[in-house]
Automatic annotation (TrEMBL):
This is Polar-differentiation response regulator DivK. One of its GO terms (biological process) is phosphorelay signal transduction system. SUPFAM superfamilies: CheY-like. It comes from Pigmentiphaga humi. Residues 3-118 form the Response regulatory domain.
């Protein structure tokens, strides 16, 4: 089963998105801040959905730390953010994110990005 690490500090957003992913057959691991995200990445999820505006360590820095560790560097990361300003996508990609999606979440669009980053044998 494909395991996704969902990093989201807003409890309502975290609950809503995790339930939607679970219904589609994903195993979901949760983290509420960037520090938890870096620690949870050590469990080697198949993909990380990373909110960028996080407490403790922001999503940009958490992404940089995950990508700097050889054990976790190959895990695909999709930035999730309400930041839709010009240049935010570029900043997320420069931090090491493999893709970028804006909130509110459009689930079909997000699932398409998830599928594009997962090995073809995974759901």
């Amino acid at each position: 089963m494909t395991r996704i690490l969902l990093v989201e500090d807003n409890p309502e957003n975290r609950d809503m998105l995790s339930r939607r992913l679970l219904r589609r057959g994903f195993d979901v691991v949760l983290a509420a801040d960037g520090g938890e995200a870096v620690a949870a990445a050590a469990t080697l999820p198949d993909l990380i959905l990373m909110d960028l505006n996080l407490p403790v360590i922001d999503g940009w820095e958490a992404t940089r730390r995950i990508k700097a560790d050889p054990a976790t560097a190959s895990i695909p990361i999709i930035a999730l953010t309400a930041h839709a300003m010009s240049g935010d996508r570029k900043t997320a990609l420069e931090a090491g994110c493999d893709d970028y999606d804006t909130k509110p979440i459009d689930l079909p669009r997000l699932l398409g990005k998830v599928q594009a980053l997962l090995p073809s044998s995974q759901p």
